[in-house]
Amino acid sequence: MTTLTKQQQGTAARAGRPGSAKPARKSFIHRLGDLKVALFFVFPAMIGFVLFYLVPTIRGVYLSFTEYSILGDPTWIGIKNYTAMLGDELFWNAMWVTVQYVGLNIGFQTVIALGLALLMHRVAKSTFIRGALLLPFLVANVIVALLWFWMLDYQIGIVNEIISWMGLPRIAFFGSEQWAIPTVAAVNVWRHMGYTALLLFAGLQSIPNHVYEVASLDGASPTRTFWSITMPLLRPVLVLVLVVTVIGSFQVFDTVAVTTAGGPINASRVIQMYIYEKAFGESDFGYASALSVILFLILALVAFVQMKFLKGNESDLD
After folding, report:
1. Tens digit of pLDDT for each residue in 38-54?
2. What is the helix (H) or strand (E) element at residue 75, kind and residue range?
3. What is d(CA 160, CA 152) in angstroms, rounded to the nearest whole number?
4. Cα 296 from Cα 313, distance rounded (Å)
5. In DSSP terms, which residues pair with 67 in a beta bridge?
6. Is 76 helix (H, G, I), strand (E, B) or coil?
7. 184 CB burial (10 A radius; 0-12, 13-18, 19+)
8. In 3D, which of 314, 136, 148, 155 has the Cα closest to residue 234?
9. Cα separation of 169 and 162, whole Å?
10. Crossing angle between the packed helical segments 89-122 and 180-205, to the nearest 10 degrees
């Protein structure tokens, strides 16, 4: 007869003990119960996502292959809407204007927001000051656009009154081909920079203090610390902010609609404005849907490139 060790005997006893498999079964049932609870809370949001995002997206893709006016039924025309874009000068002009706006908006907004985030992290410890930076973002975009439209008015705007008082010529901020897009970009930078700064500030808060202490002991200057420690460790948050702001910038519409309406002479007609005019101005919903699909693909490609080459999913803290 084979003699079992004490450890083997204990294992055999536990294996033969009645109900020994119940804890695992209870754990599975418990997890299944958690899944049901989670689905119960997610279900309302999923309904909204399907009804207001997924279904309209699928229908929009379908309409992009049709000739469709709201007064009639869609007529399948294949890729004619997409081939028509190749010779559409207004489309290419709208894309170029949008790219100019995105470059100005993202460039200035990111630099200013990063500076504000550093000030909040190192200097401004007051919660009131940090909250005040978010106030412009809490105001509706249309209200902000109207406010700046009046302030920058060529005849009665306070900004031009100050410029005239200084002996300088007045500037047609929204009525000049040269100034229209930079002015729209400046208005949106003013509105969004506080929100972007708070996102970057949250990223700065996640950087351990001992990293800066070690750099200080090594005699690193503030400039060297910023470029060698702060920026590399802030990269994941910075990339996320860039992805979100770039996507939002490509979809600018309300500020342009309220202030310039795409003028003067198409100088500020961004791609969203062009899509709106095609759909609701000319009732060409098929072509407008094709424009929307192209814009979606561009944004997806831009986001992918940013995440891939800027390594937004990696952190030097790991």
Report:
1. 888 899 999 999 999 99
2. strand 75-76
3. 6
4. 22
5. 75
6. strand
7. buried
8. 314
9. 10
10. 40
Structure tokens at 67: 């000739």
Radius of gyration of the chain (CA): 28
Phi, psi (deg, nearest 5) at residue 307: -65, -35
Q: How far is CA 36 from CA 47, 132, 269, in A?
A: 16, 42, 49
Instruction: Please confirm whether the linkage preceding 264 is cis (ω < 30° from 0).
Output: yes
CA distances from 151 to 141, 171, 189 (A): 15, 12, 16
CB 255 within 8 A of CB 187: yes
CB 267 within 8 A of CB 249: no
8 Å CB contact between 310 and 239: yes
Structure tokens at 55: 């279904």
Residue-wise pLDDT tens digits, 254-303: 999 999 999 888 999 999 999 999 999 999 999 999 999 999 999 999 99
The neighbouring-strand residues paired with 76 are 66
List all residues 6 or more positions away from 26 whose beta carbon is below 8 Å from its beta carbon.
none
Which has the closest alpha carbon to 259: 186, 172, 184? Answer: 184
